[in-house]
Specification:
GAF and ANTAR domain-containing protein; elongated; transcription; kinase; transcription regulation; 8 helices; Beta-Lactamase; five-stranded antiparallel β-sheet
Amino acid sequence: MTTPGHHRLAAAFVDLTGGSNAPAGGSPFDVTALLRKLANHSAGLLGASAAYVLLAEAHGGSAVVPADPGTRLDGLAYELAGPARTCCDTGIPVPALALSSSAVQSRWPRFAAWAQGRGYAQVAVVPLRAHTETVGALALLAAPHRPLPDAELPVGQSLADVTALMIVRERERAESRALTDQLQHALTSRVAIEQAKGMLAVQHTLTPDEAFALLRGHARSRGRLLADVAHEVIDGNADLA
């Protein structure tokens, strides 16, 4: 028998893996919107008072995305020295811990002060993992009267893993598109150079190697790209005499 909680969980998975998050008509992938959905769904399903995601960016930096877009990010800078940063670096989840506990106070004092100053009493963190890669961490904060249920944290982990898989797949698609574009550009340039060589060989009674040397020498002497000069030869706009 299904319950409203099961329906909400199913709806969360649909939302994270497709639904309204799926790019339409060539629209760019919105990772911020995806992470905000993860934070919102996780907070709602697990009863957290607040949630946010720390994303490890490709260039080595980090981005913090809260469930509430109105949350000021400057305060969340303290999280870079907190449990989500540790979880992101190690890939190891942080179980529900009281912010007043020695485990939190000794390891992440700045974060503990920041979170307690905003009325939170407990924190738990799960990594965003895709296969062996950790791309971020989902942090959940609880108010004193709403403790985080340890037994439900696997739900948050499942949502985080699905989100990580979406992010990794999008990065792989972006890399594939970039590689395809590079290969296509290289092929187009090579075809243009070969065509220009043939035209120069006929026009100046040269061998293919001599025609290429003429084309390359003209490009080098003017600091031009070889492919650009080749296109000018094809268009009849280059004087290589």
